[in-house]
Structure formats: structure tokens, C-alpha cells
């Protein structure tokens, strides 16, 4: 183990780079700003690699811990650390940031330095969320990360961006403010803001229930779970491509991560008590939202609904309380990080050329963009959960876990494999296959080398994780088992 | 009769400001045409000098002087230092605005200095009369300042309204004080606190007086239902004066609450905390909800002030006062959170009005929401400044407003008012909407007016420092929290 504060670097390097990009301004030298942005994003990714290579997979405790007093009066510490649950997301986030910076390279014309700065700062804040071990530190990153995305949607978004930006911000703030009260209550009870102390803090059932619902308000909105999902399609549709990609790949994982870090270990008995509710909502998300996705005519909206449906699978996996379920859900989260980002970037590729997201405006894209069509097919298959892609591993594990838990739950969950295939492939068919639909499609250019690089890298990740998921799952075993033992022991 | 000369040393900053106010008056009278900057620089020098004296003479001890009417303690040192810094910023921000409107005259500087002196006296008051004296000096200076623009009917109306209602509030306060004098036989604040434990004291009269004290106080800091003057005066006064009213007097108002209620009537805490709780809850609700309907930024900020002052009161409500056997009082941390909130609010308010002043030019008033449109295209940095202020006021981290809210909410939860905390955060959510709307106008909309911003470099620099303070203290709030805690002589549980 080295003494380099890797997690701090992962957080503050992109933020510092973002401020530098901001300071470089939007004058004549935007190329310079972009270069700083890309270099920072790359370095931000490089510093997270030792987190994987130096990680001790046999241990369930926090690693790479940094602890410094921050606000002594309230016993708030600058306390960072990662375990098998959070470490993959730090890396995933830093990785996606590099791709997003590349994706916006030539597309963003209005104030590019502010755009790139927003993404870099957001990347640092998101890393902060995944590595914070102090309740207030977590909350601070959690809330602060709303600001850049609010601006990204509002400034570079589509026609209805103002509505979408407000809805996104206020919806998420509603949940997190209730969580803040719960955090303060826990501090009042335990005299500490350390999340790990809260894991041990005994709590009566009434208190657990109230805290559970306060956390639920925050995380369910963020996931988002049915019926508080309505902000997501709006946000996705209006956000620029990069915003959608980060929101889908990382933003949605925050809520799920919150369930694992807060709800399950801090209020295990309430979590078990209310698990049927969560499972029910998750199944509604999987089936009903899957059907809703079928009916969409806007590609981005379709992928947004598909994300909600996939995230329903994740929350389902968490609340059936067996190792297959939780590990499967985590794999699903990482896989969805690659696949949904790739789907949005693919739609972005089409949108940059045609300036429409309407499925009906397309048709026969394969004739003019064969390379693109091939990559898009891979991601569509992964989204549908085809074996040998990363989408399959997670869905299969969760479905197995669900069947162990209860046959009919598993049965209902497995319908996602049918629905997912239906809406994704039907969309793919309408957009890509068939005759060239109109003169605009006929004039399309195939993807350039920059786009090829971005999508190619994602394609490799998707396939690699589908064929050989072991490197990802092995780091989770110890942490997940410890979590499940902790939940089973309860606090009453 | 023996009449010893009082110890002037603890009041040296006040004496300095008074002397310098007279110097400014004379300098203004005898300055030549080319020395128009003289009163401005003298005023700034006065405030910087007062700060130096205050910091230089600060000590850990509490000193009483002028027969116990005047107190120099750590609370007064901290609050007065903040006061000088705030007024300094106010004067720098206001100059261009006033010059463009022909209002930059000696009277302005003189009245600002007298208002400062009034606030200093209020902060150091250990006697009801001293407090009243300071309050009236502040109020009279501000009544005149609101009407500084004699040509403007709106300003004059605001000044009249403020004057009439202010006089009524002073009357209420004075009446309350007289009741308390009737019950305890003294006007000295620490003596009143001692009298409270005397079984011979008539508690009914005392409680009766307390009601009027709280009403007067509520009027001065502007909380519901004594808030009527705030939107009209904020709106009617020239923006530079709104900046003054909206910032520094909140510090004095906080000190007034501490001196009157915590120092003066500690054992009646149950009674006044109940009253303040009502005021706080109503203010947070009304301030946040009504602000949404405003199209004028000054009115919107006025309602936001009301909600912020309500939040500050929540800190006072949650405090526990412990009387030690030695006669000292030990205050719980909640009072420190209220003080932190007040200082944070003053910082944010100064920056918010500062940006508004920056947007005005000769003949152009920036005060409707539309004037903020597209600011990001005109000046990315000052759009970022106002954005930081807005997010800070909405209580979003990493800005000072978040820690201010956190400190108060922590105190509220610790005092067991869990549902009050839930109520307060839910209304903060409503409040977040109109702060976000300002950000939306600056960043998402096209500018209506593309003229470049005109402002002196010292104003730009100071405004930038002000905004950075909001961000930096938001990242590292520890030292300010400690300062507030030690100023109030409190201990964490």
C-alpha cells in the first residue's frame, strides 16, 4: 500500500482541473481548454487504477482510508475509504468522464470550457460520494453534485431544458433533505457522523422505520424507483449527450449505492420488514416501465425508461438478501454503467448528424453507417441481456437469486429478458434496418475515428465483462458476505 | 459627591468612530472641488481603523464600564469586527451607484458612520437604555438614508412607512422595558438576570413586559408577523441603501436578541422560546412561499431575509441556558449556530446586493428578475458569484449557507424538535425554487441587455473576495464556528 492519498486525488484532481478549465475561459483558445480537460480526465482515471490493483479482495474492511478532522464541533471528519462495493464505481466514474469529455469534443459550441469544467467537477464530486465514510461528507458531495448536472441540463439541453433541470433538481433535493434530517437524528443518537459507527448503533424499530423511509425518500428518487421516476425521462431527453451518459452511468447508481451503504446496514430490521414493499415497487418498475419503454417514439426516452427498468432489477437484487442477488445487482450496476452510457452516446452520434431523436425519422441507417450499426447492435444486445455481454451476467445472477428467494418473484423479474429484448431490438430494427427512409439518412457519414474510439472502448468493456466477469465479482465477495451477515444479525 | 471618570478604554472603537464621523462632516464641508473622494476614503479609513482598534484591544475578559451600561466582551469583539468589515464592503459597493445618481454626498458617509456607531453601541449594551440609544441612533440614520433620493416618491414613501412602523416598534420595546423595570427595579441587563431568581419579583408583570420586548425585537429583525415593512423598504430604498439595511443591522439585531433575552431574561427562556418558535416557523413558511411570487429581485431578497431570520431564530429557540452556581451562564451550542447563521447571512446578503449594484449604471436600475437574464454571457465570473450566493442561500453545499443551516438544524434536532426540522427543510425546498430561478435566468436565458458591466476595480475585487469567502468558509467552517462558540462562551455537550 502506498501513502499517496489516492481517493483524495480521485476527487480533487478533476475538480482542480475543472476550475483550471473554467479559468482558461471561452476566448480564442478553446482548444487549450479542451486539452486541459482531456488531460485532467485521463489523469483522474489513471489515479484510480491503483485502487483496483492495490485492493485486497479478501478483506471486507475499508481500504485506502483517509481520516482528517474537518468540523470538530460536530465531529465531522474528512473520512474516505472504499470497499468492494464502492471501489468499482470510483473507477467506472473516472473512466466514463474521459469518454464524456471526448464525446463533447467538437459537438459543444456554446461556452465549451464551462461545459467541460462542469463534467470534471461533477466527476470529482461523484467520486466523493462513493468514497465518503462520513455522513455529512457524503451528503455534501451528494447535494453538490446536483449543481453541475443542473447547469449541464439547463445550459446545453434541448427545448424543454428549463423544466427538466428544475424537475431534476427539486425532485432530488426533496429526497436528500429528508435524508439530512435522518443523518442529524443519527448524529444526535450516536454522537458521531461516521457511517461505520452508525452500522453498529443499536436502534429501536420505530426509529429504524422512520430512518428507513427518510433514506428511502432520498435514494428511491435517485435510483429512480417507480412511482418517483418521472424526473428521469425528462432529464435524459433534455440533457446533452454527455449529461445523459453520466446521469445514466453514474447518477442512477448513487441511489442504489445509498441503499447498500445506508439503508441495509444502518436499519437492517426495517429494511427486512419493508423489503416486500421495495420488491413490489421494483417488480412494477421492471414490468410496467418495460412496457412503457415499448411505447416510446423518442429514442432517448426509450433508453431512459429502459434504465428505470434495469434499475428496478438492481433494487430487487438488494432486497432479496442473498449473495447472488446483491452481487448480481452490483454487476448489473456496473454493466448498466457501460451499456447505458454507450446507448446514449450512440443516440448522440445520430442526433449530432440528424438533430432528431424521433425513431420515425430514421430507417436504414445500416446502409450509410455500417460501422456504427455494428457497434450499436452490440450495445442493443447488451441492453437486452444477451449472453456473452455484460448485461447478461447481472440479470442472470439477480434472476437466480430471486428464484431462490421466491419462485414467482423470480418469474416476474425474468420477464425483463423478454421485455428488454422487445423494446431494444424493435427500436434497433426501426432505426437501423430496412430501406433508407429519407434523404437525410442517405446523406449520413459513418462514425469518425474519435467516435469509433469511444464506442470501441465501451464495446471491449461490455464484451470483456460478459465473457469473464470474475475480476469484478471477486472483489465484491468479502464485502457482500459481511453485509449480509450484518443484515441477518439485525439490531433488535 | 464623588463622580469618577469612567474607563473609556473598552469603548475606544466607538469613540474613534464618533470622532471620525465629525471629521468626515468637516472634511466634506471644506473639501475642494477636486477632492470629491475625501469623505469616501476617510470613511473607509475610519472603518479599517475601528477594526484595528477592536482587534487590538480584544481580550478574553468581560469589562463593564460607564457604570455597567457598556460591556466589552468577546461577543461584542467578534460581532463588531464583522460589522466593520460589512460596512466597509457596503461603502465600497455603493459608491459607483450613488455617484451615478448624484447621491454620493457627505451626508451618506456621515449617516453610514452614525448608523455604524449605533450598531456598535447596541452590540455593547449592558443596559436597556444603552440598547435603546444605539437602536435609535441606527434607526434614525437609516430612516434618513432610505429617503436619501429626495426626488424619488417611492423612496420617500418607503422612508415614511419605515419611520412610522419603526417608531411604533420602538414604542413597544420601550413599553416592554418599562414593565421589566417595574418588576425588577433595574434596567441593567445583568442585574435583571440576578433579580429573576428573587421570589419577590412579580413574574406576571415580567412576562407581560417580555411580550412587548419580543414584539419590538421581532419588528427590528423583521420576522412574521412584524415583517410588513421589510419588502416595502427593501424595494423602495435605493439599492445601495437596501444593501446596508439588508446586511450589517442583522448583526446588531442578533446581539440585541442575545443581550435582551439570553443575558437579561435567561430563566424566562421557556416563555420567550415558545414565542420565538411561533415567529420562526411563520417566518420560514411565509418568507419562502411569498418569495416565489416576486418579480422584483429586491422584494424577493426581502422575503428571503424573512425566512433566513426565521431560521436564525430556530437556533435561539433550540438553545439551553444553564445557570452555574457561580452565577455564570453556560449556553448550549445552539446560540453559536444562530450567530454563525447570522454572519453567514450577512456575507451572502452583501454579495447578492453587491451584484445587483454591479448591474446598475447611470439611468439603469437592475432590480427586476429580467435584468439578470443572460448574465453568464455578459460576465461569467459575476454570474458565478451570484450563483454561489444563490446556492449558498438555498443551503446547498459546499457553500457557507449549508453549514449555517446544518448547524441550526443540528441544534433543532438535538433540542428534540424533530418535526420542526422536517418542516424547516421542506420549506427550504420551496425556497430552493426561487434561488434556482435566479441561476436559471443568468445561465439558461438570453440577455435582454448586452451592455458590458461598469464598475470600479476595487468593487470588483472586494465582491470577488466576498464570494470567495462564501465558498472558502463553506469548505472550512471550523474557525468561524469556533469563533462563534467562544464568543458566546459555550460548551459542546
Beta content of chain A comes to under 5%
Total domains of chain A: 2
Low-confidence runs of chain A: none
Q: What Rg of chain B, in angstroms, do the CA atoms define?
A: 22 Å
Provide the residue-averaged pLDDT of chain A.
87
User: How far apart are the first and last residues' alpha carbons of chain A, in Å?
Assistant: 38 Å
Task: Give the strand content of chain B.
Answer: under 5%
Distance between the termini of chain B: 49 Å
Condensed summary:
Chain A is mainly alpha-helical. Chain A is 75% helix and 3% strand. Chain A folds into two domains: 1-222, no CATH class; 274-492, no CATH class.
Outline the structure in words.
The complex is a heterodimer of chains A (492) and B (493). Chain A is mainly alpha-helical and 492 residues long. Chain A contains 24 helices and 2 strands. The radius of gyration of chain A is 21 Å and the shape is globular. Chain B has one domain (9-491). Helix content of chain B is 72%, strand content 2%. Chain B contains 20 helices and 4 strands. In chain B, the strands form 2 sheets. A two-stranded antiparallel sheet of chain B has the order 1-2. The longest helix of chain B is centred in the middle third of the chain and has 32 residues, at 153-184. Chain B is globular. The model of chain B has no long low-confidence stretch (mean pLDDT 88). The chains are: A mainly alpha (492), B mainly alpha (493). Chain A binds chain B through residues 25-26, 70-74, 111, 114, 136, 139-141, 143-144, 146-147, 150-151, 154-155, 161-162, 165-166, 169-170, 173-174, 177-178, 180-181, 184-185, 187-188, and chain B through 333, 376, 380, 391, 396-398, 402-403, 406-407, 409-410, 413-414, 418, 421-422, 425-426, 428-429, 432-433, 436, 439-440, 443-444, 477-478, 481-482, 485, 492.
Amino acid at each position: 500500500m502506498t501513502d499517496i492519498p489516492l481517493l483524495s486525488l480521485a476527487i480533487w484532481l478533476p475538480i482542480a482541473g475543472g476550475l483550471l478549465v473554467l479559468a482558461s475561459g471561452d476566448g480564442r483558445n478553446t482548444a487549450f481548454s479542451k486539452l486541459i480537460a482531456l488531460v485532467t480526465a485521463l489523469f483522474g482515471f489513471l489515479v484510480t487504477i491503483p485502487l483496483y490493483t492495490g485492493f485486497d479482495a479478501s478483506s471486507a474492511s475499508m481500504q485506502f482510508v483517509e481520516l482528517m478532522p474537518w468540523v470538530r464541533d460536530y465531529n465531522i471528519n474528512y473520512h474516505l475509504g472504499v470497499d468492494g462495493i464502492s471501489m468499482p464505481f470510483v473507477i467506472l466514474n473516472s473512466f466514463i468522464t474521459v469518454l464524456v469529455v471526448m464525446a463533447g469534443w467538437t459537438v459543444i459550441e456554446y461556452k465549451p470550457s464551462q461545459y467541460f469544467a462542469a463534467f470534471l467537477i461533477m466527476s470529482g464530486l461523484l467520486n466523493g460520494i462513493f468514497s465518503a465514510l462520513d455522513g455529512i461528507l457524503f451528503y455534501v458531495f451528494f447535494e453538490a453534485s446536483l449543481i453541475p448536472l443542473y447547469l449541464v441540463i439547463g445550459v446545453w439541453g434541448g427545448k424543454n431544458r428549463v423544466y427538466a433541470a428544475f424537475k431534476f433538481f427539486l425532485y432530488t433535493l426533496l429526497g436528500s433533505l429528508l435524508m439530512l434530517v435522518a443523518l442529524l437524528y443519527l448524529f444526535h443518537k450516536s454522537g458521531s457522523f461516521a457511517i461505520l459507527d452508525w452500522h453498529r448503533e443499536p436502534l429501536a424499530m420505530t426509529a429504524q422505520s422512520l430512518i428507513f423511509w427518510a433514506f428511502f425518500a432520498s435514494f428511491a428518487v435517485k435510483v429512480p424507483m417507480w412511482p418517483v421516476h418521472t424526473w428521469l425521462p425528462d432529464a435524459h431527453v433534455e440533457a446533452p449527450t454527455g449529461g445523459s451518459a453520466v446521469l445514466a452511468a453514474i447518477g442512477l447508481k448513487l441511489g442504489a449505492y445509498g441503499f447498500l451503504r445506508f439503508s441495509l446496514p444502518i436499519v437492517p430490521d426495517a429494511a427486512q420488514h419493508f423489503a416486500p414493499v421495495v420488491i413490489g415497487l421494483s417488480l412494477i418498475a421492471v414490468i410496467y416501465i418495460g412496457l412503457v419503454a415499448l411505447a416510446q417514439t423518442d429514442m432517448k426516452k426509450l433508453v431512459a425508461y429502459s434504465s428505470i427498468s434495469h434499475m428496478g432489477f438492481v433494487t430487487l437484487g438488494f432486497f432479496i438478501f442473498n449473495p447472488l442477488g446483491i452481487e448480481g445487482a452490483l454487476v448489473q450496476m456496473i454493466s448498466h454503467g457501460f451499456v447505458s452510457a454507450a446507448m446514449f452516446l450512440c443516440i448522440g452520434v445520430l442526433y449530432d448528424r440528424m438533430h432528431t431523436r424521433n425513431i420515425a425519422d430514421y430507417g436504414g441507417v445500416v446502409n450509410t453507417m455500417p460501422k456504427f450499426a455494428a457497434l450499436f447492435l452490440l450495445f442493443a444486445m447488451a441492453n437486452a441481456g444477451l449472453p456473452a455481454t455484460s448485461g447478461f451476467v447481472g440479470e442472470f445472477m439477480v434472476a437466480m437469486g430471486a428464484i431462490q428467494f421466491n419462485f414467482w418473484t423470480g418469474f416476474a423479474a425474468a420477464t425483463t429478458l423478454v421485455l428488454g429484448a422487445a423494446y431494444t431490438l424493435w427500436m434497433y430494427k426501426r432505426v437501423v434496418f430496412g430501406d433508407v427512409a429519407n434523404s437525410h439518412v442517405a446523406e449520413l457519414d459513418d462514425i469518425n475515428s474519435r467516435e469509433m474510439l469511444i464506442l470501441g472502448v465501451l464495446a471491449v468493456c461490455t464484451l470483456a465483462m460478459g465473457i469473464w466477469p470474475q475480476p469484478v465479482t471477486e472483489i465484491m465477495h468479502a464485502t457482500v458476505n459481511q453485509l449480509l451477515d450484518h443484515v441477518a444479525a439485525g439490531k433488535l | 459627591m464623588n463622580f469618577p471618570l469612567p474607563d473609556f478604554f473598552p469603548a475606544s472603537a466607538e469613540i474613534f468612530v464618533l470622532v471620525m464621523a465629525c471629521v468626515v462632516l468637516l472634511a466634506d464641508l471644506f473639501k475642494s472641488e477636486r477632492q470629491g473622494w475625501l469623505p469616501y476614503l476617510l470613511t473607509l479609513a475610519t472603518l479599517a481603523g475601528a477594526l484595528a482598534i477592536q482587534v487590538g484591544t480584544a481580550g478574553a475578559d468581560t469589562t463593564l464600564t460607564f457604570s455597567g451600561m457598556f460591556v466589552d466582551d468577546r461577543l461584542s469583539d467578534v460581532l463588531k469586527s464583522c460589522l466593520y468589515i460589512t460596512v466597509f464592503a457596503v461603502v465600497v459597493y455603493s459608491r459607483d451607484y450613488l455617484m451615478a445618481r448624484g447621491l454620493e454626498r457627505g451626508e451618506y458617509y456621515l449617516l453610514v458612520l452614525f448608523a455604524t456607531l449605533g450598531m456598535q453601541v447596541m452590540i455593547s449594551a449592558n443596559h436597556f437604555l444603552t440598547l435603546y440609544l444605539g437602536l435609535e441612533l441606527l434607526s434614525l440614520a437609516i430612516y434618513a438614508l432610505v429617503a436619501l433620493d429626495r426626488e424619488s416618491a417611492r423612496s420617500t414613501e418607503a422612508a415614511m412607512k419605515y419611520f412610522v412602523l419603526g417608531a411604533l416598534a420602538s414604542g413597544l420595546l420601550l413599553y416592554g422595558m418599562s414593565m421589566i423595570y417595574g418588576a425588577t427595579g433595574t434596567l441593567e441587563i445583568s442585574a435583571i438576570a440576578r433579580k429573576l431568581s428573587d421570589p419577590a419579583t412579580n413574574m406576571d408583570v415580567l412576562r407581560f413586559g417580555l411580550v412587548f420586548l419580543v414584539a419590538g425585537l421581532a419588528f427590528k429583525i423583521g420576522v412574521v408577523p412584524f415583517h410588513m415593512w421589510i419588502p416595502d423598504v427593501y424595494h423602495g430604498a435605493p439599492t445601495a441603501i437596501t444593501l446596508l439595511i439588508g446586511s450589517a443591522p442583522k448583526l446588531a439585531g442578533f446581539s440585541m436578541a442575545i443581550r435582551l433575552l439570553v443575558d437579561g431574561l435567561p430563566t424566562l427562556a421557556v416563555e420567550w422560546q415558545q414565542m420565538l418558535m411561533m415567529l420562526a416557523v411563520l417566518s420560514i413558511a411565509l418568507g419562502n412561499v411569498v418569495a416565489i411570487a416576486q418579480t422584483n429581485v429586491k422584494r424577493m431578497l426581502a422575503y428571503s431575509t424573512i425566512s433566513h431570520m426565521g431560521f436564525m431564530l430556530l437556533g435561539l429557540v433550540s438553545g439551553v441556558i444553564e445557570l452555574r452556581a457561580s452565577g455564570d451562564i453556560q449556553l448550549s451550542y445552539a446560540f453559536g449556530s444562530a450567530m454563525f447563521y447570522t454572519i453567514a447571512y450577512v456575507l451572502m446578503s452583501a454579495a447578492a446586493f453587491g451584484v445587483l449594484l454591479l448591474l446598475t449604471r447611470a439611468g439603469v436600475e437592475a432590480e427586476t428578475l429580467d435584468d439578470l437574464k443572460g448574465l453568464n454571457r455578459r460576465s461569467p465570473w459575476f454570474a458565478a458569484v451570484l450563483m454561489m450566493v444563490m446556492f449558498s442561500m438555498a443551503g446547498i453545499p459546499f457553500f457557507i449557507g449549508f453549514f449555517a443551516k446544518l448547524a441550526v438544524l443540528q441544534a433543532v434536532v438535538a433540542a428534540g424538535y424533530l418535526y420542526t426540522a422536517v418542516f424547516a427543510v421542506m420549506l427550504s425546498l420551496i425556497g430552493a425554487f426561487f434561488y434556482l430561478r435566479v441561476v436559471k435566468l443568468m445561465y439558461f436565458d438570453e440577455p435582454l441587455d448586452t451592455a458590458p458591466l461598469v464598475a470600479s476595480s476595487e468593487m470588483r475585487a472586494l465582491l470577488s473576495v466576498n464570494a470567495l469567502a462564501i465558498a472558502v468558509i463553506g469548505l472550512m467552517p471550523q474557525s468561524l464556528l469556533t469563533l462563534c462558540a467562544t464568543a458566546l462562551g459555550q460548551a459542546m455537550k
